[in-house]
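2024-03-11 09:14:02 INFO worker-7 job=invfold-0412 stage=load source=structure_tokens
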């Protein structure tokens, strides 16, 4: 996607003029504009990639597609071969933009530290690892004074969210850039639409409906000699500690839009779900291979009593209702986000503006760095993640759970993660029946 036109409403202009600050966190208030090292494009932004999966690779390609003065200088992945192969692929694709000698390719669970260090002064770190690992990596990058782009979700559990919130505040003190991979926040069509809603296009908004009903997901067979930790890292989507479940890993986008429109965060949630139909390989519901749910339904309640209804589902095949969208309902009409507003007493209004958020979020980030400006998306990234965690724990436990209670006392899914290696026993191990533990409503304790 090309850079926004000068007459299009930029994200920063929108945030300054809409008057739509999120009350609980000021996540949508005016972004701080501070001077940093990269003035008028005079310096090169050294980029380090941590996590060589699909989104990490995509982010690097999109950074390369910006007009900024950037260079890839280090790569890390838990699998050293994957990191090495990714660098070779980048060299073939991007030639001398890649400055990653063999001694700046790192493997293992602690390789991220070396990659972050290698980014150098005022470097940018792209964190695209499984969500369970992101809090420690985010925290370390801030400690080392690096700018950050972190894919969503930023954590898989409550302690991880608290770490990211604290590190994001420290990043603000240090004037460090923090971009989060909630790309709808960078799409003109969403920015334009949300501003219209906040300006009263459908009156008072009292209900959101959000959906991520998709198809099945990948699974990778266990390899000979592979440790349990290595297996679970390679199949991270299928383990709660690593992915946070589908509601965190993908449905977070729709939940984030709901919070954005509602200008706040839910105070409690209740829900239901299960995992008996998840397809793994050619089988369904095989708990010897997976731990997560395949469907969730959550009712979120905001401080004003208004609701957000959430559907998330991942099932293989084409027999189920597939839908990824967000809808707002107000006193004067309805809206399908980034598509159309339908007033009760008028003609539909089509929403205009560019999409292409994955590219635009990198264009915005690099452009800001080159101009010597920063913004910090860490807080709403963490709270969007926690919205998903709140819904997940409500589904797992069958309880109605309050935001404040869970944020204070929520379950630790990754105990001792800072000291893990590929030979560490992961927190989700098979029981005597050969199956991984599955949260059961009425039994599961979200505060254990």
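2024-03-11 09:14:09 INFO worker-7 stage=emit residues=448
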């Amino acid at each position: 996607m090309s850079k926004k036109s000068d007459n299009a409403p930029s994200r920063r202009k929108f945030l300054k003029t809409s008057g739509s600050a999120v009350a609980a966190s000021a996540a949508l208030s005016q972004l701080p504009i501070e001077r940093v090292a990269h003035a008028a494009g005079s310096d090169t932004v050294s980029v380090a990639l941590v996590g060589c999966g699909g989104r990490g690779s995509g982010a690097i390609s999109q950074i390369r597609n910006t007009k900024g003065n950037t260079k890839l200088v280090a790569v890390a992945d838990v699998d050293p071969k994957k990191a090495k192969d990714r660098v070779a692929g980048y060299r073939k694709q991007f030639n001398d933009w890649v400055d990653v000698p063999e001694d700046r390719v790192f493997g293992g669970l602690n390789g991220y530290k070396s990659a972050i260090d290698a980014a150098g002064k005022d470097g940018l770190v792209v964190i695209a690892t499984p969500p369970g690992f992101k809090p420690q990596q985010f925290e370390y990058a801030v400690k080392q004074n690096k700018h950050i782009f972190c894919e969503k979700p930023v954590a898989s559990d409550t302690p991880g969210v608290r770490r990211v919130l604290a590190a994001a505040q420290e990043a603000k003190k240090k004037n460090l850039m923090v971009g989060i991979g909630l790309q709808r926040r960078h799409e003109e069509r969403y920015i334009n639409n949300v501003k219209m809603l906040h300006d009263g296009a459908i009156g008072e908004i009292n209900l959101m409906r959000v959906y991520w009903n998709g198809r099945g997901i990948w699974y990778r067979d266990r390899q000979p000699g592979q440790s349990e930790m290595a297996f679970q890292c390679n199949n991270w989507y299928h383990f709660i500690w690593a992915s946070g479940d589908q509601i965190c890993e993908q449905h977070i986008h729709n939940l984030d839009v709901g919070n954005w429109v509602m200008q706040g965060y839910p105070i409690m949630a209740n829900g239901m779900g299960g995992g008996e139909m998840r397809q793994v390989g050619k089988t369904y519901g095989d708990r010897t291979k997976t731990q997560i749910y395949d469907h969730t339904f959550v009712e979120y309640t905001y401080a004003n009593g208004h609701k957000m209804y959430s559907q998330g589902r991942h099932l293989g095949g084409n027999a189920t209702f597939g839908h990824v969208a967000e809808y707002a309902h107000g006193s004067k009409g309805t809206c399908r986000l980034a598509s159309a507003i339908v007033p009760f007493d008028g003609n539909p209004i089509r929403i205009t503006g560019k999409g292409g958020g994955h590219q635009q979020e990198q264009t915005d980030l690099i452009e800001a760095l080159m101009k010597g400006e920063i913004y910090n998306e860490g807080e709403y990234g963490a709270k969007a993640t926690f919205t998903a965690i709140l819904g997940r724990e409500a589904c797992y436990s069958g309880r109605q759970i309050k935001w404040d209670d869970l944020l204070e006392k929520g379950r630790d899914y990754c105990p001792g993660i800072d000291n893990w290696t590929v030979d560490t026993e992961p927190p989700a191990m098979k029981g005597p029946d050969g199956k991984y533990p599955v949260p059961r409503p009425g039994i599961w304790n979200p505060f254990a």
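2024-03-11 09:14:09 INFO worker-7 stage=report msg="The first strand starts at residue 45 and ends at 50."
2024-03-11 09:14:10 INFO worker-7 job finished
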